[in-house]
Amino acid sequence: MKLNHAPATVDALNDLPVKVVDGATIYMRDVAHVRDGSSPQTNIVHVDGSPQQHSRLRAAALLAEAYDAHLVGTGMTGMSWLDFALLTGSMGAPMMPSSDFQGMRDAVGARLDEFTQEARRLGGASLETRLVEDDPRYALLMQSRYADLTILS
């Protein structure tokens, strides 16, 4: 909506007159500095390697471009390191080498690398990846606490 005599930009607010003192106009810039101080939006994308991942990323990239958002690809191992240690240390469980857990980390890392390449191809200017050692449900719940939008499916 455009209003009569409304500034077209945030910077133009600095040129608004506040009052006149002894014939001299005092402008907003004389008493303050107006700027757009909102932080960038953060959008988290669930990276799991499923067939839906590509459509999730495409939607996230479009939203990131439209709202100048920071895109975060989050991939999970499916098991926390603590759970893995408890499982491998249990007398009732067969011994699992720690390389199995590293294998899970490597698989997630490869998916996150693919996410980065695809996000850059789609025009993602501001992005990062996060590898989380946990169950996806809990990890996404925790990650979403610090995001403006979480894209799951």
Rg result: 24 Å
Average pLDDT reading: 85
Strands ordered across the widest β-sheet? 5-4-3-6
Q: Sheet bearing the most strands, described?
A: 4 strands, parallel
Helix/strand/pairing class, anyone? Answer: alpha/beta
Number of helices: 5
Q: What's the overall geometry?
A: elongated
Strand content: 15-25%
Question: How many strands in all?
Answer: 6
- Helicity, as a percent range: 25-40%
Distance between the termini: 33 Å
Low-pLDDT windows of residues:
none
Question: How would the blueprint of this fold be written?
Answer:
Elements: E1 17-21, E2 24-27, H1 28-31, E3 42-46, H2 53-67, E4 70-76, H3 81-89, H4 98-121, E5 127-132, H5 136-144, E6 149-151
Parallel strand pairs: 3-4, 3-6, 4-5
Antiparallel strand pairs: 1-2
Could you explain the architecture of this structure?
40% of the residues lie in helices and 20% in strands. The model has no long low-confidence stretch (mean pLDDT 85). It is elongated and about 80 Å long. The chain has 5 helices and 6 strands, in the order ββαβαβααβαβ. By secondary structure, it is an alpha/beta fold. The longest helix has 24 residues, at 98-121. The strands form 2 sheets. Strands 5-4-3-6 form a 4-stranded parallel sheet, with helices on both faces. The chain has a two-stranded antiparallel ribbon with strand order 1-2.
